[in-house]
Amino acid sequence: MLKIAIYGKGGIGKSTTAANLTAAMSVLNCRVMQIGCDPKADSTLLLTGGSPIPSVLNVLREKRNRVEMDDIVFRGEGNCWCLEAGGPKPGVGCAGRGIITTFETLKSLNVYETIRPDVVLFDVLGDVVCGGFSTPIRQGYAQHVAIVTSGEKMSLYAARNIATAVREFAPMGGASLIGLIANQKGFTGEQEKIRELAQELELPILSWIPRCELVQQAEEQSRTVVSAYPDSEQAKVYLGLAQTLLRLGEASQS
Predict the structure, then answer these.
(1) Which residues are catalytic?
(2) Do residues 18 and 121 touch, judged by C-beta distance below 8 A?
């Protein structure tokens, strides 16, 4: 089972990228589980036709010790399964705690053993890599981390912070950093800025995702580009990235 955490600054298109990756890997005949690790619980909307699914924390609040796997794991498009960690009520409690609780629940319900996914994608908020938000990279839940970034200043800043955190945890059995995913905004000089960051961090650029109107058009339909426009060049970009990540995963496990 390949487990990859997708990190990136909020609003950078991380969840859209993760959902399209999940859809692409499904097309490539993988059983995929996408786990949204954001209090907004909106990571999997493009995989469920726009229908929000109950978050783990909300279900736990309602059912306490009577939670079953079908209460929190839902089938999405193609060959994928969706789960949202959720978070506390606004202004109350620690948002990162929802991720920790979710992973504990997954273990207690034997979710992986039941669904037997080939790939698990964690979609993690990366503005602050501390507390619960660092759980996927520091406790062995994820094997690899890919960082989504554009060439915008704050996105690059967040990417540096994430890379630093991942590398600090790596010697203690944490996840390995495998590269950057360039989710471009399309402004002049952007690619140069991303290349400079990649060189600074000594990381490969796993994929250049161009700015494309089809992404927004697919989102208006509550679908991924891979599903809504499977023959488009944009869909081929996501499929190419999926193949790259699968190859890296195979290489690391061989």
Answers:
(1) 9, 14, 40, 127
(2) yes
